[in-house]
C-alpha cells in the first residue's frame, strides 16, 4: 500500500526531489488505508479527472501547499496528530482538504494561507 501511495505521488507529478518532506505522505497513506482506496489509486482513471474536487487534485493541492509553506518543517508531530484526528473522525471517504485547511487557520506558522510576505519569501 505504501508503494502504491508513492506511485500515486509520482503520477501526480512529484519525485524524490520535489517531495521534500516524507512526513507529508503519512496522512495520505492513512487516508488511503482508512477508506480502502489502495485499488482505486492504482488505476489510471483515478488520475484522469481534472476536476478540482477530485481526490487526486485535492491531494496534489494539499501537498503543494504543505511543501510551499513548509508545514512539515520543525515540529511536524502536532500537524500529523491534527490531520490524523480529522481523517479518523471523518465519515466522508473523500480526501478532507477543506477540513485540513480550516483546522490550521488558527495556527500562525502552520496554516495554509498565503500573503504578500510569504510570496515575496518564495521568490
Task: Give a structural overview.
- The chain has helices at residues 2-11, 25-34, 38-41, 45-48, 55-68, 77-89, 97-103, 116-122.
- The chain is mostly helical.
- It has one domain (2-122).
Q: What is this entry, summarized?
A:
The protein is an all-alpha fold and 123 residues long. 56% of the residues lie in helices and 0% in strands.
How are the secondary structure elements laid out?
Elements: H1 2-11, H2 25-34, H3 38-41, H4 45-48, H5 55-68, H6 77-89, H7 97-103, H8 116-122
Helix pairs in contact: 2-6
Protein name: DUF262 domain-containing protein
Structural class: mainly alpha
Query: What is the radius of gyration?
Result: 14 Å
Percent in helix: 55-70%
Distance between the termini: 36 Å
Largest sheet: none
Residue runs with pLDDT of under 50 for 5 or more positions: none
Mean pLDDT: 86
Element-by-element helix/strand order: HHHHHHHH
Number of helices: 8
Shape: globular
Q: Compute the number of strand runs.
A: 0
* Binned strand content: under 5%
Total domain units:
1
Looking at this protein, list some descriptive labels.
8 helices; mainly alpha; 123 residues
Amino acid at each position: 500500500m505504501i508503494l502504491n501511495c508513492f506511485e500515486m505521488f509520482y503520477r501526480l507529478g512529484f519525485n524524490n526531489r520535489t517531495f521534500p518532506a516524507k512526513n507529508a505522505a503519512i496522512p495520505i497513506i492513512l487516508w488511503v488505508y482508512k477508506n480502502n482506496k489502495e485499488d482505486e489509486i492504482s488505476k489510471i482513471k483515478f488520475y484522469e479527472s481534472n476536476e478540482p474536487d477530485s481526490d487526486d487534485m485535492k491531494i496534489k493541492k494539499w501537498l503543494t501547499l504543505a511543501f510551499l509553506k513548509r508545514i512539515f518543517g520543525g515540529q511536524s508531530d502536532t500537524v500529523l496528530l491534527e490531520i490524523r484526528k480529522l481523517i479518523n473522525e471523518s465519515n466522508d471517504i473523500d480526501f478532507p482538504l477543506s477540513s485540513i485547511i480550516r483546522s490550521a487557520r488558527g495556527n500562525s506558522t502552520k496554516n495554509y494561507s498565503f500573503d504578500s510576505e510569504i510570496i515575496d519569501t518564495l521568490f
